[in-house]
């Protein structure tokens, strides 16, 4: 700061997690709004504006930043959380859990509150059911289609199958349009 060309930077960092050099891990550089704050005549005003911008960014996404600040290794986080979700019986049929799975699989993170939902689901989830003898041929084929669509990352079809699967399980037959979509995809995925 004592030099005429000196500047300062501002970043939101985690006090819990350190980078590979032992410095606090930077959570968000973009929220500062500019790459640096030069020592100009108005540097105090500019610095204050930058701090307010950073504070506002944090407050708008506090849950996200708090969760991000606790993650040491993003790859390990992804593997562990996906395994936890997939261990919950019927997670594919639960819109919230399947959304969480999709987000984590794409490299995103969950807020602390969302992670707590997974914890609650783990504690109340019964053992994974085996297909019952009463399951219709349609449900069995839909399960096979779901597996194939998941392997191809066909998120629209996964959402569609989850919705129609819940409908069929509740005793309501698929509509003509739903059956047309199912028939087309059974043929497309060779099921």
Description:
With 191 residues, the protein is mainly alpha-helical. The chain folds into three domains: 7-68, no CATH class; 73-127, no CATH class; 130-191, no CATH class. It contains eight helices and four strands. The chain has helices at 43-60, 62-68, 74-86, 95-105, 112-124, 137-151, 155-169, 176-188; strands at 7-8, 12-18, 24-28, 37-38. The strands form two sheets. The chain has a two-stranded antiparallel ribbon with strand order 1-4. α3 runs antiparallel to α4 and α6 packs antiparallel against α7. The protein starts with 6 loop residues before the first strand and ends with a helix. Residues 127-134 have low confidence and may be disordered.
Topology summary:
Layout: E1 7-8, E2 12-18, E3 24-28, E4 37-38, H1 43-60, H2 62-68, H3 74-86, H4 95-105, H5 112-124, H6 137-151, H7 155-169, H8 176-188
Antiparallel strand pairs: 1-4, 2-3
Task: Give a short synopsis of this structure.
This protein has 191 residues and is mainly alpha-helical. Helix content is 55%, strand content 8%.
């Amino acid at each position: 700061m004592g030099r005429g060309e000196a500047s300062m930077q501002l970043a939101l960092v985690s006090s819990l997690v350190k980078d590979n050099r032992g410095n606090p891990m930077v959570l968000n550089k973009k929220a500062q709004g500019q790459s640096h704050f030069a020592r100009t005549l108005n540097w105090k005003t500019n610095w204050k504006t930058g701090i307010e911008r950073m504070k506002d960014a944090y407050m708008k996404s506090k849950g996200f930043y708090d969760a991000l600040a606790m993650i040491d290794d993003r790859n390990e986080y992804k593997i562990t959380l996906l395994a936890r979700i997939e261990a919950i019986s019927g997670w594919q049929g639960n819109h919230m859990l399947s959304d969480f799975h999709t987000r984590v699989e794409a490299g995103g993170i969950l807020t602390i509150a969302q992670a707590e939902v997974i914890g609650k689901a783990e504690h109340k989830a019964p053992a994974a059911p085996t297909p019952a003898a009463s399951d219709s041929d349609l449900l069995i084929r839909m399960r096979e289609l779901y597996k194939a669509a998941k392997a191809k990352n066909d998120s629209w079809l996964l959402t569609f199958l989850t919705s129609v699967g819940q409908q069929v399980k509740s005793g309501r037959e698929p509509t003509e349009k739903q059956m047309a979509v199912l028939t087309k995809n059974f043929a497309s995925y060779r099921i």
